[in-house]
Task: inverse folding
RNA sequence: GACCCCAUCGUCUAGCCCGGUUUAGGACAUCGCCCUUUCACGGCGACGGCGCCGGUUCAAAUCCGGCUGGGGUCGCCA
């Protein structure tokens, strides 16, 4: 029975790298019908925070993963001390300066890594390692191996930053008479520039991506693409499908640079693949949670707006930004509309208002017909009327097709907004 | 500095294990064309890569070695 674990430390939020390690562990367990254990490494009482723990758990769930067991190292201190005592009794550790040190002799250590093959350490930098700190709390390397052994973890899948911890851990397993698990060190995720992930690189916590309006399925899909490939040139793949295909030895050895562009693309793919009805629910939830949805907006109306924008947004937040004028009446003319606003065609727009107000069926076909007829009678090209009209209706230079926009906005609002532009010209000229 | 890991388009990758089937495939980004009332979507196309040097071999992106480059670790943090 495969038993793997993900061992986050609640001293910070779940970030991209951790999420991906968690994902690979979960996938491996589920693929092999094994068990996935969560172990909270909260031995640093000072820095561990409940707030972080909650968000880590929340993020894991949000990404669609579940766990079979959960342990907290802070509740197991007696156990670690007991095993430290065993090492002392065996003469493999000693107490000094108030702490307990595991002592080991220089020897060759080999790791048979599932992803990298054989890794050989011919020397180690030290000959002792603190296992119980002078305040009585255990150190990471020690509880890690005691727990992995006691929890019957047989596959340790973790970031490659742990490779150099592995030899001393193996020495500890042996000293305690434990079997060593199989190791698989997954590559690190690099910053977009290829270097180390840093605080400077914006939103790195999973929660922040959720906040920005990335879909959990897209997030998982993108994370999957970093260091693993489903083959057959597949880019879009669900957790469920990945569960069938995932094998730990298919994971790459090379570090992968994070790409916001590709994440955006994956997210837009998921946005587009959702039915408008479902996407409307998603967007409604998103906006409500952020208190960005005016109560005047009905579900039916929102659905029509979503239909207009679903192909042109990358994130849910994009919807909020781009569709602003569809949800609120207090919009501004954006900076880039200046060139259009400079050409005062208030008389022509007034004529457009007059003619549109005669339409009884305010649907896009009828609107287009009347609109084009108006343009022609004014001796204007359609687009010379379209652009100012779009600015009038949405405050923006770009957006969905004008006639669809008008239909969704409705006659009353359209006329009011066109008049607003005419007023604007009267005031500024 | 010591130890360790890694090395295919700008980025993510397929191919590498089991050398010839590869004019090295796909995706993102970029650029161009088409569609078009704008943007986006979509369609078509372009650009662009096996880090370098040796070796093994009839044949190397694929095997071996070195170099270079990038990354990680050297905490009574995890």
Result:
């Amino acid at each position: 029975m495969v038993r793997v674990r993900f061992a986050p430390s609640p001293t910070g939020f779940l970030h991209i790298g951790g999420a991906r390690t968690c994902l690979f562990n979960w996938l491996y367990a589920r693929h092999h019908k094994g068990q996935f254990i969560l172990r909270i490494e909260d031995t640093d009482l000072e820095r561990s925070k409940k707030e972080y723990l909650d968000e880590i758990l929340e993020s894991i769930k949000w990404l669609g993963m579940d766990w079979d067991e959960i342990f907290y190292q802070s509740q197991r201190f007696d156990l670690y001390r007991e095993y430290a005592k065993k090492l002392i009794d065996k003469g493999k550790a000693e107490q000094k300066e108030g702490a307990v040190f595991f002592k080991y002799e220089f020897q060759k250590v080999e790791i048979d890594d599932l992803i990298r093959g054989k890794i050989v350490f011919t020397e180690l930098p030290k000959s002792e390692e603190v296992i119980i700190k002078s305040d009585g709390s255990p150190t990471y390397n020690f509880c890690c191996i005691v727990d992995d052994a006691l929890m019957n973890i047989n596959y340790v899948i973790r970031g490659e930053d742990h490779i150099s911890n592995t030899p001393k851990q193996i020495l500890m397993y042996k000293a305690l008479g434990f079997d060593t698990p199989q190791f698989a060190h997954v590559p690190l995720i690099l910053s977009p520039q290829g270097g180390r992930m840093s605080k400077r690189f914006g939103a790195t916590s999973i929660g922040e991506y959720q906040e920005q309006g990335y879909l959990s399925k897209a997030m998982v899909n993108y994370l999957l693409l970093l260091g693993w490939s489903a083959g057959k040139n597949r880019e879009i793949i669900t957790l469920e499908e990945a569960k069938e295909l995932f094998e730990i030895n298919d994971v790459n050895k090379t570090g992968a640079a994070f790409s916001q562009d590709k994440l955006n693309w994956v997210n837009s793919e998921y946005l587009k693949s959702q039915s408008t009805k479902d996407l409307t629910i998603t967007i409604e939830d998103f906006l409500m949670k952020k208190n960005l949805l005016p109560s005047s907006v009905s579900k039916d109306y929102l659905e029509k707006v979503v239909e207009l924008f679903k192909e042109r947004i990358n994130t849910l937040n994009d919807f909020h930004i781009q569709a602003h004028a569809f949800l609120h009446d207090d919009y501004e003319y954006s900076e880039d509309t200046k060139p259009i606003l400079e050409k005062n065609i208030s008389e022509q727009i007034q004529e457009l208002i007059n003619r549109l107000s005669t339409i009884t069926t305010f649907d896009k076909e009828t609107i287009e017909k009347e609109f084009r007829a108006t343009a022609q009678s004014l001796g204007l090209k359609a687009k010379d009327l379209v652009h100012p009209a779009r600015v009038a209706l949405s405050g923006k230079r770009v957006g969905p097709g004008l006639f669809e926009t008008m239909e969704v906005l409705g006659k009353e609002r359209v006329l009011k907004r066109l008049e607003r532009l005419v007023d604007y010209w009267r005031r500024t000229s």
